[in-house]
Amino acid sequence: MTSSESTTALSDKLLQPEPLTAEAFAPYGDVIETADRDYFLINQDYTRRYHRLADVDTDKDGSAIISIFRAQVYPRPLQINMMEKHPLGSQAFIPLNQQAFLVVVAPPGDTVTPHDLKAFITNGLQGVNYHKGTWHYPVIALNNDDEFLVVDRSGTGNNCIEVFFNSDQSPVLQT
Ligand SMILES: NC(=O)N[C@@H](O)C(=O)O
Ligand code: NI
């Protein structure tokens, strides 16, 4: 394969993140943020409550748990060679260090192909809540030792299904 063919092949499979917005992310889940969101005052008006920004779905036989993920930056270039979904519950990632991170998703469904993928970059103040069954790549930090508060499901049943792509079909995430 000549360099131009390899470049062409590679350019066919570049995944370019777009800025995360609630509207664009709606098919996949919720954006957890305060910007332009409704709130009401509590605690003698000393506190704003940005109420129910997202729901936690634990399906049946499940309960919501809170964890902290400390993530390292994946080597570059990052090929999105797999996707996972949690068919029994939602999964939320809320940044603890106000740093941007990357999100790769595809709509819920029985399976996923590289053509279904969509990439987003957060603004550092946004979290995401993947709805039950939304395909996603595991958390993609842009800074080593970045930390995320994670709200997801603990319970019976297999709550993590993975699909792997052929290497020549796996897009390269642009960062
Ligand atoms: N495995 C795990 O708990 N994390 C993944 O689900 C992820 O989306 O990062
Ligand atoms: Ni996950």
TrEMBL record:
Alphabetized SUPFAM superfamilies for the sequence: RmlC-like cupins
Catalysis performed (reactions): (S)-ureidoglycolate = urea + glyoxylate
Keyword Lyase: yes
Superkingdom of this protein's organism: Bacteria
Pfam family, one: Ureidogly_lyase
Protein keywords: Lyase, Purine metabolism
InterPro entries in the cross-refs: RmlC_Cupin_sf (IPR011051), UAH_cupin (IPR047233), Ureidogly_lyase (IPR007247), Ureidoglycolate_lyase_dom_sf (IPR024060)
Membrane-traversing stretches: none
Any one GO molecular function term: lyase activity
Gene3D superfamilies membership: Ureidoglycolate hydrolase (2.60.120.480)
Quaternary data: Homodimer.
Protein name, as recorded: Ureidoglycolate lyase
